[in-house]
Q: What sequence folds into this?
């Protein structure tokens, strides 16, 4: 097998959460471009993502779910296997954010973010890992971390806490699951032009300050994550365990 063949995902089935738009949509399409069939999970309309994946000739199923509760986990597993036959890849992309000063931050804003970004991420990973172990031929779990897995940020305490946890959980899950031929790694996107960062890009002072620190000189695009997610989902990364890869235009190197 040549090295380029190791990046192919023909015959693989991926679950991508938060797949209706932005980073999740781009990564789901990237996996399909590499040959995977994809189960899309989101609470909002997924028509655009479905159309792109089906145009590639890949299998696709949409699973409507709100990851603020772990009650959706069994449904995600069951519907993926029912429609696509198996699971090989999980991309834990779904995330949410709340902004407020520490002195004004509410319990609801804390709980909502932790539940989506940390709690459901763990329990969905747990359920998928059980499927991988039962299938007997390994698998890939890819968590979506953040620049705030490395840094503190401001005005987003629950988001920072959850994304710091994502990097820690990536390491822990890798330690326990590597023996089962399951790779667990993470991608930390830099400052990407998505809905979550719209308030930052709309603030001329913050936008200018952020761009001034990015060596690449631009906000990232969702498509910038396609290469990283295909690599981590493929045999090309079979000896990578527990690492968080920054795709950040050089932000952390600055």
A:
């Amino acid at each position: 097998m040549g090295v380029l063949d190791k990046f192919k995902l023909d015959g693989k089935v991926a679950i991508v959460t938060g797949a209706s738009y932005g980073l999740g949509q781009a990564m789901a399409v990237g996996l399909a471009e590499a040959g995977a069939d994809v189960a899309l999970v989101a609470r909002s309309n997924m028509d655009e993502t479905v159309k792109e994946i089906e145009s590639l000739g890949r299998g696709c199923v949409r699973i409507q779910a709100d990851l603020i509760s772990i009650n959706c986990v069994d449904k995600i597993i069951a519907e993926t296997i029912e429609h696509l036959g198996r699971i090989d890849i999980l991309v834990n992309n779904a995330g949410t954010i709340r902004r407020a000063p520490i002195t004004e931050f509410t319990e609801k804003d804390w709980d909502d973010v932790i539940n989506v970004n940390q709690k459901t991420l763990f329990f969905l990973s747990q359920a998928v890992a059980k499927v991988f172990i039962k299938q007997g031929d390994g698998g890939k779990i890819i968590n979506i971390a953040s620049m705030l897995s490395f840094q503190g940020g401001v005005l987003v305490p629950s988001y920072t806490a959850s994304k710091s946890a994502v990097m820690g959980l990536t390491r822990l899950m890798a330690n326990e699951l590597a023996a089962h031929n399951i790779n667990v790694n993470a991608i930390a996107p830099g400052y990407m032009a998505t809905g979550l960062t719209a308030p930052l890009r709309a603030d001329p002072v913050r936008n200018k300050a952020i761009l001034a620190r990015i060596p690449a000189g631009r906000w990232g695009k969702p498509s910038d994550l396609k290469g990283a997610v295909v690599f981590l989902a493929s045999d090309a990364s079979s000896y990578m365990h527990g690492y968080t890869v920054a795709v950040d235009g050089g932000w952390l190197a600055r």
About this structure: Residues 3-249 form a domain with the Rossmann fold fold (CATH 3.40.50.720).
